[in-house]
TrEMBL record:
Full protein name: ATP-binding protein
GO molecular function annotations of the record: ATP binding; snoRNA binding
Record key words, sorted: ATP-binding, Nucleotide-binding
Family, as annotated: Belongs to the NOP5/NOP56 family.
InterPro entries hit by this protein: Nop56/Nop58, Nop5_N_sf, Nop_C, Nop_dom, Nop_dom_sf, NOSIC
Region (Disordered): 344-377
Family matches, as PROSITE patterns: NOP
UniProt-listed Pfam families: Nop
Statement: the UniProt record of this protein carries the keyword DNA-binding: no
Record domain Nop: where: 231-345
Gene Ontology, cellular component aspect: box C/D methylation guide snoRNP complex
């Protein structure tokens, strides 16, 4: 004989094949939300276990409507089916249920849980890096132009971090020269301070703000590395923390990235080129964000497509391990680099087909540029 088990906000109900109620285990009123959260987290509440145990005495098969797997119940009699007749019958008889207040609270809990996911924080962090980089670039351009009015020889310092640090840590021209004397030829220097102290103070404070922003960027980079090590160690080892975080951000979450086929992962970030291919018939893109991986970017041009395709497959597997099995493979990067070396070794020269494709791509680019010029005219 078969019976069916389902649940509502009140508790668990069991029905026979004629939709007759044969058993129930209700939640305490003040525990309803807590029990629904347990179910949401794929746990088996005490009430469900008790009802199944009771039914097992009289029934050969118990069909449960559940978000769990049959194996989670540790019983040969239990099978999961969504929806099952009991659930459909219960939902069509509202008198067995209660108002929507508990459902609303559960919906709020689910929203908070979704927002609080570790990968959501990671996405915000990696997106902030691009914005910080853009801001730092503009601010440094301004401070270089401004500080040159006082100390034009500072343009000899090409490294932006060193430039800002020297201004931040040393208030005057003389202090900067003493701190890094090897960078400034003596015959070029004019040590006289011919500037209003207030002007110098405001420039020093401006440099301090940039320096603090640079330190914030470093802290966020360290945070991203730690977060990737925590939630996606396989992906981090394979592509690095920064690129891994960008892929997660572009997909909208680690779980979504894990659900993508490798063909989608391969062209993530190259959507414009893909739409152009669909619209005008240009060659489809071979890679998107994964071009930033040194093994793809540094490969010979005729091998990049093969390596990108292989890397995309490895990324999909790494993400799935991080999400579903949590098995860490310390050799994942070495295995990938060994395959890259094999591809490079087996394809030392471009084939006629790859040469022809490159020529077609160059022609397509020229056509695209001409089309743009005509539209401008």
């Amino acid at each position: 004989m078969e019976c069916y088990v389902t649940y509502s906000v009140k508790g668990f109900y069991a029905f026979n094949e004629n939709n007759e109620l044969i058993g129930k285990r209700l939640f305490k009123e003040d525990e309803m939300l807590e029990k629904l959260i347990e179910i949401d987290n794929k746990e088996i509440p005490r009430e469900e276990s008790e009802l199944i145990e009771e039914l097992s005495k009289d029934y050969d098969s118990i069909i449960v409507e559940s978000n769990k797997r049959s194996s989670d119940y540790n019983s040969d009699k239990v099978k999961v089916k969504n929806p099952n007749p009991a659930g459909e019958y219960l939902r069509s008889n509202s008198d067995l249920d209660v108002d929507n207040e508990i459902y609303q609270k559960l919906a709020i809990y689910r929203m908070k849980k979704a927002q609080a996911g570790d990968d959501k924080h990671l996405i915000q962090a990696i997106n902030s890096i691009d914005e910080i980089d853009e801001s730092i670039s503009k601010l440094i351009e301004r401070i270089r132009e401004w500080y040159a009015l006082y100390f034009p020889e500072m343009d000899l310092i090409k490294n932006n971090e060193t430039y800002i640090k020297l201004i931040y840590e040393n208030k005057t021209k003389e202090e900067i020269i003493n701190a890094k004397s090897d960078a400034f030829p003596e015959d070029m220097l004019d040590i006289e301070d011919d500037i209003n102290p207030k002007d110098l103070d405001i420039m020093n404070n401006y440099a301090k703000s940039i320096y603090e922003l640079q330190q914030t960027r470093k802290n966020i980079i360290d945070y991203i590395d730690e977060k990737m090590e925590s939630i996606a160690p396989n992906l981090r080892l394979l592509v690095g923390a920064s690129l891994g975080a960008k892929l997660i951000s572009h997909a909208g979450g680690l779980k979504r990235l894990a659900s993508y086929p490798s063909s989608t992962v391969q062209i993530m970030g190259a959507e414009k080129a893909l739409f152009r291919h669909l619209k005008s018939g240009d060659r489809p893109p071979k890679y998107g964000l994964i071009y930033q991986h040194p093994q793809v970017r540094g490969a010979k041009w005729w091998n990049r497509g093969k390596i990108a395709r292989m890397l995309a497959g490895r990324i999909s597997l790494a993400a799935r391990k991080d999400v579903f099995t949590h098995d860490f493979n310390p050799e994942i990067f070495n295995e990938f680099t060994a395959k890259v070396e094999e591809i490079e070794k087996n394809n030392p020269f471009p084939t006629k087909t790859t040469k022809k494709r490159k020529e077609e791509k160059q022609k397509s680019k020229k056509k695209h540029k001409k089309g743009k010029k005509r539209r401008r005219k």
